[in-house]
Amino acid sequence: MPSPTLLSLFATVPLGIESLLGEELSRLGASGIALERAGVRFQADLKTAYRICLWSRLAGRVLLPIARFSAPDEKKFYGGVRSINWSEHMKADGSFAISVTSSQNEKSKLQHTHFAALKAKDAIADQFRSVTGARPDVRLDRPDVRIQIHLEQGEATVSIDLSGESLHRRGYREQGAKAPLKENLAAAILVMAGWPQISKAGVGFVDLMCGSGTLPIEAALMSSNTAPGFFREYFGFLGWKQHDAAAWRELKQEAMKVRITDKKLLPRFFAFDQDSFTLKTARENAAEAMVDDLIHFERRELAEAPQISPNYGEAGLVGCNPPYGERLDDPEKLKALYRLIGDTFKKKASGWKGFVFTGNLDLAKEVGLKASRRFPLFNGAIDCRLLTYDLYAGKRE
User: Fold this and answer.
1) Domain count along the chain
2) In whole angstroms, how far apart are CA 369 and each of 338, 342, 387?
3) pLDDT at 200
4) Quick check: 89 and 145 in contact, CB under 8 A?
5) Residue at 240 is within a domain
């Protein structure tokens, strides 16, 4: 039996997480891994590409490049897109959507991504019309095929987006609290804070300011070995003409079998927040992710945080993603909040590992503890830091 064909693919990822994604892709069966800014190039057969779409906790999108050509101007760009045999990828009565990204210089005639997307749409429609007399529809929401085009230095790379929509959309979060963390960024924070290793000891996880619940839910999904794409109904390959339905069905069945559902085999999870409505949202999200029976949600002010150690175990992971002050928050109240985080860590979580994820380094100093590690990350366009702490008894430094 011949070996499966290796495909050249590209996975996008938030800035600062490229090396983590490379390691994850390798564990999932990818090869030829090469790190780039905000992404990783790799090789995999189609089934492995599906596995990555299902199991990657860190990737944003998984792209399959199908053509690369010179596109110095509108005419060459239109011709390059039209030269691709689109009937290999979609049906004439199907649907598609196009997104365009650009790193073109200011002198390029194809700077505007919306204009380029319209020209690409015309090229595809014109090709189908000339061959079949019909053309697929443009559908922005969950099309059969999503096409991604990147323009750079006069060249165009055209890819099929196998993910269809960003993989951070796990399918469990219908709504979020103010400025919710994206799920793949939350997963990266947990990996960097050491949760995959800590959780194997069966110890606890505590989120002091859980918001819409993303951190505790992602922590519970990791510990229960639940595929992050398990709850998604839509992927970009499902309507693609080259989709291997049998391979996808096998991967879904495998993911169902390996989930750990016995609570006695899993750590304990605690999530606190001061806002009742936010907690209601967090509980609903946890229920959609089928981990609501693992997480204890409770309304508590940070000043009323429970004694974590030893009540929740001698060791574990405790942390939070506090406000950064991006909105009109009172600076003095924010300073007091960050000081209270440090005091809570010291007085109530001795022996545990702590973490704070913030986009305000000046406020981070108010925690008053010496960080054991500092990881640069981005939350959207915000330059952030993940600070981890080894907590022990004694005076606050």
Assistant:
1) 2
2) 11, 6, 10
3) 87
4) yes
5) no
